[in-house]
Specification:
The complex is a heterodimer of chains A (about 325) and B (about 325). Chain A is an all-alpha fold and about 325 residues long. In chain A, about 75% of the residues lie in helices and about 0% in strands. Chain A is built from 14 helices and two strands. Chain B contains 14 helices and no strands. Classes of the chains: A mainly alpha (about 325), B mainly alpha (about 325). The interface of A and B includes residues 140, 252, 259 and 300 of A.
């Protein structure tokens, strides 16, 4: 098992280095970093001097190693657009995005599994058919359209919930949270539904098809023959065996949720990293873009690693080294 | 004459095929097929059938701005036939009319016409980026599956990494890079190509993987060995012998990915980094209309939204059907 984890970690580091290299190339060759720092009337000699001082004339390998070292410390230089520190800009907006993504993921998991179990157990019930139809619409509507429709109904027409911003936030030593105020929690509702709906339908469909399959197996019949209650059969035996694909998909989709926060944050004017990224794409603000990409890649890799470890916790068959190879 | 009989034989084959039978045996699929077909046709004929040319300033009049759709509660229901029911209940400017069945936007453009033109652009971008992804994916997939070895390992590693990153993020980044290289004005001119390139490049992986998988199966078969023995070149074997046998799944993937491409394009345009307002796709129309959501003119954003949702739902349903119909396991 330690060998497996080590292999996974080496893979993760390789992926991170590749993304870091892409970021580095972006940073250094798209636009001239010097132009972003000096005024129009700086002489060429001064520019060359600055270039020398900043180490831009060092060999590419030295510069890349320095870039990785700086990135590890959250140092990405100044934004072309606002001349703020990029690391700081992203760090300030990170809590908003992570809280939104977290709530959306929990929403998708809880409702997705519940709806999946129900439609899997009673596939012919009218309510299951209704849920199925809704899930097809949920998969077909683009995220931003769902957001707009929710705003139209719950914010503009009914005036129940706010349509933009985070509400009041509490500062917990650099981490601003919206979980502790009423307006903060209310502001989370519509964006997290918008963000989680696609993943909800996905999880529901997977749980449903897995449940349908598992309920036909012999060990379910045997569990019934032993006189176990419906609850024990459905949740203790059937649901537990559908969890491996659910974990895979949820893990991969967590990355998608953080990425799609870009769209949701734009619709709801949510002050997170995604909104920052869209603005930086719009203004070709390369330092912010490359820092964001690197951060997202880091989150992706971290999530994938955690998912791999979770397999071990859920599926005992994977604990032998041989089958670990096979699953890979 | 020969061509005509060949065509006749083709029609005969289509009429007796399993595909057509399974198409006609599912009501949902038929409805989806008809809806998508009508939308394709109407949008490609937009310059001839649209009631108005929304991008010709001469045909616009600001006095027509912000008209609700004909069935809106401020129009049709309060004023059947269009005359005034009660005092002030149906002011002239709040009345929907058949002149603008889906209402008008802030410039007085007929929404039906802008939607027809917008759907056209969305479809053009969708098809073009799928074509790009298909060429790229099939090419690399064939190469990867046929050559094997280090090249195969490298390409599939790249594909693995790219598959974990959502298409929208890749497309956004590519767009940002292009913006960093070219000027803003130039960017607007080439926006269409940039977006096709971005989406196409973000969708090739699935094609490559599928084709590679089929090639690995096909290349061990006897007909490939036979072709090699009679001296067909590697390229010839790949393109003429192996490729045709991998096209079924490719067809299914392109249909499903067409929906993904349309959604991605709409999302990018909605974010303001896709097609500019001078050549608006459905996504751009929704973005522009979004500004009027709070002042009560909901139809400016909802109408293109419905068009987009119906289009994607239809394409998705067709894709699902195609996947099941071409899957021999389900027969």
């Amino acid at each position: 098992m330690i060998g497996f984890i080590l292999r996974r970690m080496i893979q993760a580091v390789v992926v991170l280095l590749v993304v870091a290299f892409v970021s580095f190339v972006l940073f250094n060759y798209v636009g001239d970093p010097i132009n972003g720092m000096v005024g129009q009337d700086t002489s060429i000699a001064d520019r060359e001097k600055l270039r020398e001082e900043l180490g831009l004339k060092d060999p590419i390998t030295t510069r890349f190693i320095r870039f990785v070292g700086d990135a590890a410390q959250g140092e990405f230089g100044l934004s072309y657009r606002t001349t703020e520190h990029v690391g700081r800009m992203i760090f300030v907006r990170m809590p908003a995005t992570l809280e939104l993504s977290f709530v959306a993921a929990v929403f998708a998991l809880v409702f997705g599994i519940a709806m999946g179990v129900y439609t899997g157990l009673y596939p012919r019930h009218w309510f299951s058919r209704l849920l199925q139809a809704i899930s097809l619409i949920g998969i077909s509507l683009p995220t931003f359209l769902i957001g707009i429709l929710l705003i139209l109904f719950f914010a503009v027409t009914l005036r129940w919930l706010p349509s933009f911003g985070r509400g009041d936030t509490v500062d917990l030593g650099g981490w601003t949270t919206g979980f502790l105020t009423l307006t903060g929690l209310r502001a989370l509702i519509l964006p997290s539904i918008t963000l989680g709906l696609f993943q909800l339908t996905l999880i529901m469909r997977i749980v449903r098809s897995e449940m349908l399959e598992v309920m036909r197996t012999d060990y379910i019949k045997f569990a019934r023959a032993r006189g176990l209650s419906n609850r024990a059969v459905h949740f203790g035996h059937a649901l537990k065996n559908t969890l491996v694909p659910v974990i895979t998909v949820t893990g991969l989709q967590l990355g998608a949720i953080i990425a799609f926060a870009i769209v949701t944050e734009t619709v709801f004017s949510w002050p997170g990293m995604g909104q920052l990224f869209v603005q930086s794409v719009f203004f070709a603000d390369i330092p912010v873009m490359s820092a964001y990409l690197l951060l997202i890649a880091f989150l992706f890799v971290l999530i994938n690693l955690i998912v791999d470890l979770l397999y071990y916790a859920v599926d005992p068959r994977l604990r032998s080294a041989q089958s670990a190879m096979r699953v890979r | 004459m020969a061509a005509r009989t060949a065509l006749g034989r083709l029609f005969g084959r289509v009429r007796q095929s399993d595909l057509l039978w399974s198409f006609r045996s599912s009501k949902t699929t038929m409805v989806a097929g008809v809806v998508v077909g009508v939308m394709f046709l109407a949008s490609f004929l937009a310059p001839w059938i649209a009631p108005q040319d929304p991008y010709d300033p001469a045909s616009l009049s600001l006095s027509d701005a912000m008209k609700p759709p004909v069935f809106s509660d401020r129009g049709f229901w309060l004023c059947p036939g269009g005359y005034e029911l009660r005092e002030g209940a149906c002011a002239e400017e709040a009345k929907g009319s058949w002149q603008f069945p889906l209402g008008t936007d802030d410039q007085g453009r007929d929404l039906l016409s802008t939607i027809l033109y917008g759907t056209r652009l969305s479809l053009v971008v969708g098809f073009a980026s799928i074509a790009l992804a298909m060429v790229l994916g099939i090419g690399l997939g064939l190469l990867s599956g046929y050559a094997g070895g280090a090249l195969d390992a490298f390409l599939m590693r790249v594909a693995d990494v790219q598959l974990t990153i959502p298409a929208i993020l890749i497309a956004l980044t590519l767009d940002g890079i292009v913006r960093g290289i070219v000027s803003t004005q130039r960017h607007e001119e080439i926006a269409l190509f940039v977006i096709v390139f971005s989406i196409g490049l973000s969708l090739w992986v699935q094609f490559a993987r599928t084709v590679r998988g089929s090639v690995m199966v096909e290349r061990t078969k006897d007909y490939v060995a036979a072709a090699r023995i009679i001296g067909v070149s590697s390229g010839g074997i790949m393109l003429r012998h192996i490729l045709p046998n991998t096209l079924g799944p490719v067809f299914v993937i392109s249909t499903i990915n067409l929906a993904v491409a349309i959604i991605t394009e709409a999302t990018l345009s909605f974010l303001g980094v896709g097609l500019p307002p001078t050549q608006p796709s459905l996504g751009t129309l929704i973005r522009v209309g979004n500004d009027y959501l709070f002042s009560g003119e909901w139809w400016i954003t909802v109408m293109p939204g419905i068009a987009l949702a119906v289009l994607i739902l239809g394409v998705n349903l067709l894709g699902d059907w195609l996947r099941d119909a071409l899957n021999p396991k389900l027969r």
